[in-house]
Design brief:
The protein contains no helices and six strands. It is mainly β and 61 residues long. A hairpin with a 6-residue loop joins strand 4 (41-44) and strand 5. It binds zinc ion.
């Protein structure tokens, strides 16, 4: 789990917890994000910074 301080919102490349798919997600997502391949929940909104369920591969500038 990567915890980067700072008010700036970021896009993250995240690997699905259930399959090898990787996709770009917003780390302050206000809606649930599901894997485009298998449908697993990747990001859960949490009122502010979202909870990332997959593995964060890298931040996307
Ligand atoms: Zn998946």
């Amino acid at each position: 789990m990567v915890d980067l301080p700072g008010p700036k919102s970021k896009f993250l490349q995240v690997r699905c917890p259930d399959c090898p798919n990787e996709q770009i997600v917003f780390d302050h997502a206000s809606t649930k994000v599901t894997c485009l391949v298998c449908g697993a929940t990747i990001v859960r909104p949490k009122g502010g910074k979202a909870e990332i369920r997959g593995e964060v591969v890298k931040a996307v500038e």
